[in-house]
From TrEMBL:
<feature type="transmembrane region" description="Helical">
    <location>
        <begin position="120"/>
        <end position="139"/>
    </location>
</feature>
<feature type="transmembrane region" description="Helical">
    <location>
        <begin position="47"/>
        <end position="71"/>
    </location>
</feature>
<keyword id="KW-1133">Transmembrane helix</keyword>
<feature type="transmembrane region" description="Helical">
    <location>
        <begin position="12"/>
        <end position="35"/>
    </location>
</feature>
<keyword id="KW-0472">Membrane</keyword>
<protein>
    <recommendedName>
        <fullName>50S ribosomal protein L27</fullName>
    </recommendedName>
</protein>
<keyword id="KW-0812">Transmembrane</keyword>
<feature type="transmembrane region" description="Helical">
    <location>
        <begin position="91"/>
        <end position="108"/>
    </location>
</feature>
Length: 145
């Protein structure tokens, strides 16, 4: 496996995850503001797919980080990893925040799967996960600017 293939796969999944998260938020809002607060099939499916894409992305990202990334290796060797804000964001903050978000989404997905009614604490957990993703997302690297 070559670094560029992994990076392209990571980029591809990034678009998919943005889409999945948008659908997930719509499903969450529909359930929250629905009369019954009953967890719908739509919410269950959207949280499941978001979690599956996220886990795949985490595996690709971790393999890339520890085994392939020339940038991460160079940053470590030069001693600039934590000193340079861009390097720190890409190789430390991005992976850490995304892993925390993946854990939160996994918990939320489990709760939605095994319960009938929505609980506010799970909604907050889901919103924290989404906020972490939006903060740690590599917007500039994916969309330029
Ligand atoms: C969960 C654990 C994750 C890890 C460990 C991880 C790791 C990485 C690493 C190491 C890079 C830089 C690659 C390099 O230039 O050497 C990177 C870039 C990137 N990651 Fe992640 N990532 C994770 C999750 C995510 C998620 C969930 C998304 C999208 C929602 C995402 C989107 C991106 C994007 C768009 C880039 C920029 C790609 C580019 O510059 O071409 N990552 N990630």
């Amino acid at each position: 496996m070559d670094f560029n293939i992994m990076l392209q796969a990571h980029r591809g999944f990034a678009y998919l995850i943005l889409l999945a998260i948008a659908v997930f938020i719509v499903a969450l809002l529909m359930t929250m503001f629905g009369y019954s607060g009953k967890i719908s099939k739509f919410l269950r499916k959207s949280s499941l797919f978001t979690m599956i894409f996220f886990h795949t992305q985490a595996v690709i990202g971790l393999i890339m980080l520890f085994f392939f990334s020339p940038g991460f290796k160079a940053a470590k060797e030069s001693g600039m990893l934590m000193k340079d804000s861009i390097l720190r964001n890409t190789y430390v903050e991005h992976p850490t925040a995304m892993i925390i978000a993946a854990i939160l989404l996994t918990i939320v997905n489990k709760k939605f799967k095994t319960n009938e009614k929505l609980n506010m604490s799970w909604v907050i957990m889901a919103l924290i996960a989404v906020a972490l993703v939006l903060w740690a997302f590599q917007w500039k690297r994916l969309f330029g600017g």
